[in-house]
Design goal:
This protein is of the alpha/beta class. It is 41% helix and 11% strand. Helix 3 links the parallel strand 3 and strand 4.
């Protein structure tokens, strides 16, 4: 299994510490950018991390916030001018549209151009590929350091399933883990859905998770594979 250095976006976990972050091929580049701060190159000292829901973006952001003392850009309602370009900020969930109009994002990126501050931008897809109206927004986003968190491998899925189960007080034995990993869709979201469903059945039936429950959950979530 890959070495555990930094680890993932477990929605039920309270601890987002560095020691919990397991690095695999899917997230090594993103994790490396956290280690490289504050030596982020570019006229805007920033990093974009994008990937599917539950892939670990928020966990990485939490690790970086602890190191950089960054705060969240919670809303654009209060305007961009109140942000200190000498400080660090996290912009979570960047999307193209009314949530972040082109002019507002352009103003934000300009405010941090050549500044001493840092930005971490989280998104489900690469922001530079979103359909922005202003070419200057696209060009500035394309110039920012970017890392994608991709599909997890089997080792990471095994770790994730165990961690999600532990967070809910469930025990999954090796046979169950192997059975799930061999049959599940390779995604962080699917792993989360499987564990949520197992937890719900376990609570409803007031029984420990067993192989029969595991087979049922997989058949319900992925009927085309059964």
């Amino acid at each position: 299994m890959s070495g555990q250095q930094i680890t993932l976006d477990f929605p039920s976990a309270d601890n987002y510490g560095r020691h919990q972050f397991m690095i695999g091929a899917c997230n090594a580049i993103a994790a490396d950018w956290i280690d490289r701060w504050p030596d982020w190159p570019g006229v805007i000292r920033a990093v974009i991390i994008h990937g599917d829901q539950y892939c670990g973006k928020s966990h990485l952001a939490a690790i970086w916030k602890a190191a950089s003392k960054a705060t969240d850009i919670a809303s654009i309602a209060t305007g961009i001018d109140h942000l200190d370009p000498a400080q660090s900020y996290v912009l979570d969930g960047l999307t193209c549209g009314t949530e972040w109009p082109d002019e507002t994002l352009f103003h934000l990126l300009n405010r941090f151009t050549g500044s001493a501050g840092s930005l971490m931008i989280l998104a489900t897809e690469a922001p530079a590929l979103m359909p922005w109206r202003l070419p200057d927004v696209t060009s500035r986003l394309a110039a920012i350091n970017t890392a994608q968190i991709t599909t997890p491998d089997d080792d990471l899925l095994e770790y994730l399933l165990r961690k999600l189960a532990d967070d809910r007080g469930m025990a999954l034995d090796d046979e169950m883990i192997t059975y799930i990993v061999k049959r599940m869709e390779r995604s962080f979201g699917t792993a989360n859905s499987i564990i949520d469903a197992l937890n719900e059945i376990s609570i409803t039936e007031k029984k420990k998770v067993n192989m029969a429950m595991t087979r049922k959950v997989l058949a319900d979530i992925q009927p085309s594979l059964f």
